[in-house]
User: Which sequence fits this backbone?
């Protein structure tokens, strides 16, 4: 699990100061800006914004948190903003994160609905939607590719990781397996295997967040 | 359509609240059930309103969950007697529309966020547990592959489109640009929007 800026006990000693939101309002506006860039879904933006730009999370931490956000019910980007907000500032931070993710986008979408009823049916708008959708699809794939370095420290080893990636991709993209089945058929065995691997080596040597530069 | 009695608003809230817990992988996975409930079973909104709510939420910035807000908006307008596809004209209609948004959004958000709050706190407190670490390590490659597969499915959505080869090319180029460069995402989205608007893709 990623260490966080707030609880002092979990930060490695002499670690350089990590970028983190300084206040709940900074958190709120950071998630607002993130959400307002999310044409075609926030998924495409969240990795770029939190890992590449703000550096609040490393790729490893992002993948770990994303796994939790993904498996719990609810919109995964909202889950992620809730988890991060909670970790930085407790439940008020969680509220600030979720509010940031939802407030302005809700206002925008309702204004569009109120002012331009039927705008989504105009052919040019549909064309623009198609174009943005095609770009967003590429962005989401790229977000996945940019996270693969996080697997270098994975306890299961690179080969097992790539085999799991291939199996998951085929199951979801080509076979169209529902998420629940994917978690049962591939996720559960993967977690059991990881559990086994974690037992083989001394725990301290496998904790990736203690090796961060 | 006439104004919905309070018991029906409660029914709406409870229905969305139960879907909230089932919405693993996002609320869009429960859209077929919402469609059945709102359009077929209750007749509160039309099929066109349902589809355009999803389309509009994807056009606008923000999480895709906001299609649920638009569904509530349309239900409220319907309850105020506004015909589908037209704008509201009275304050009462806007108030009911906002009430609809409040009911559907709180229904879909409250249970799942409460569960996420409790579960992720537990997970963070117990992050040194072998089982918790095994879950995160085991899920890491799957989560990465899920992102790639989601993008792939979105790109494959255009199969029947006459421009589908061009759309694939746009997806591939934007993927490469994000992967290898620092180009701002909004430039790419804007370029895609313009190309689509002009009918090039």
Assistant:
């Amino acid at each position: 699990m990623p260490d966080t800026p707030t609880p002092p006990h979990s930060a490695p000693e002499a670690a350089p100061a990590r970028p983190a939101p300084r206040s709940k309002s900074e958190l709120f506006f950071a998630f607002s800006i993130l959400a307002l860039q999310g044409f075609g879904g926030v998924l495409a933006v969240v990795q770029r914004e939190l890992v590449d730009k703000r550096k609040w999370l490393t790729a490893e931490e992002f993948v770990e948190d994303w796994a939790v956000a993904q498996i719990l019910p609810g919109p995964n980007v909202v889950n992620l903003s809730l988890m991060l907000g909670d970790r930085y500032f407790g439940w008020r931070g969680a509220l600030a994160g979720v509010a940031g993710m939802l407030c302005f986008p809700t206002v925008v979408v309702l204004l569009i609905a109120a002012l331009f009823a039927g705008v989504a049916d105009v052919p040019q708008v549909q064309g623009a939607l198609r174009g943005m959708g095609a770009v967003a699809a590429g962005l989401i794939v790229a977000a996945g590719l940019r996270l693969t370095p996080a697997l270098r420290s994975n306890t299961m080893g690179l080969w097992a990781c790539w085999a799991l990636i291939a199996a998951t991709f085929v199951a979801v993209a080509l076979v169209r397996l529902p998420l629940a089945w994917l978690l049962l058929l591939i996720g559960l065995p993967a977690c059991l295997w990881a559990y086994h691997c974690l037992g083989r080596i001394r725990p301290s040597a496998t904790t990736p967040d203690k090796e961060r530069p | 359509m006439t104004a919905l009695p309070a018991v029906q608003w409660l029914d709406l809230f409870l229905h969305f609240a139960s879907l909230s817990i089932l919405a693993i992988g996002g609320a869009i996975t429960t859209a077929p059930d919402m469609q059945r409930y709102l359009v077929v079973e209750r007749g509160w909104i039309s099929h066109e309103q349902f589809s355009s709510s999803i389309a509009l939420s994807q056009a606008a910035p923000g999480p895709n969950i906001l299609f649920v807000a638009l569904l509530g908006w349309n239900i409220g307008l319907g309850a105020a007697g506004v015909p589908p596809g037209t704008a509201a004209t009275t304050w009462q209609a806007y108030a009911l529309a906002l009430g609809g948004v409040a009911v559907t959004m709180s229904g879909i958000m409250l249970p799942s966020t409460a569960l996420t709050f409790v579960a992720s706190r537990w997970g963070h407190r117990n992050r040194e547990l072998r089982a918790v670490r095994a879950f995160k390590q085991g899920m890491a490659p799957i989560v990465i592959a899920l992102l790639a597969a989601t993008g792939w499915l979105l790109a494959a959505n255009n199969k029947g489109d006459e421009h589908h080869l061009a759309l694939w090319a746009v997806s591939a180029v934007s993927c490469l640009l994000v992967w290898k460069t620092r180009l701002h995402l909004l430039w790419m989205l804007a370029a895609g929007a313009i190309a689509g608007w002009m009918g090039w893709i």
